[in-house]
Amino acid sequence: MPFASIRIITDDVDRLAAFYERVTGLTAVRPAPVFAQIGGGGATLAIASPATVAMLGDTLLAASNRSIIVEFEVADVDAEFARLESELTDVVLPPSTMPWGNRSALFHDPDGNLVNLFSRPAAPPARASGDA
């Protein structure tokens, strides 16, 4: 079963879509005013108005997430953070090396969802045969 997308429900689709366009450098596809999606590298980030899930009642509530992190793998965390820093209003963790080796920068999007830009550590060089 292939993973398809994560959808963020928001009261301001335009604002959140514009934010993620700046973060990813990609243009959101807007099939309707109440919906935007940004795809790249495998899964899609969908951004939608509560109107798109109205049939579910009050199951979903915009801007109330405190349990997931939207993550983007980048080549250079420090460069991406520097590019976005002037627009970020809630930085949780400036570029830092995590105990497991990833380099990460975490911040909240305009709705309070946590976003992580990360890069994996470079693989150590392969040993030549006979090296101890």
Provide structural commentary:
The protein has a four-stranded mixed β-sheet with strand order 1-4-3-2, with helices on one face. The protein has two helices and eight strands. The relative contact order is 0.18. Helices cover 15% and strands 33% of the residues. Strand 7 and strand 8 form a beta hairpin. The model has no long low-confidence stretch (mean pLDDT 91). By secondary structure, it is α/β, with parallel strands linked by helices. The longest helix has 12 residues. The protein has two domains: 52 residues, Signal recognition particle alu RNA binding heterodimer, srp9/1 (2-Layer Sandwich); 58 residues, 2,3-Dihydroxybiphenyl 1,2-Dioxygenase, domain 1 (Roll). The chain starts with a strand and ends in a 13-residue tail after the last strand.
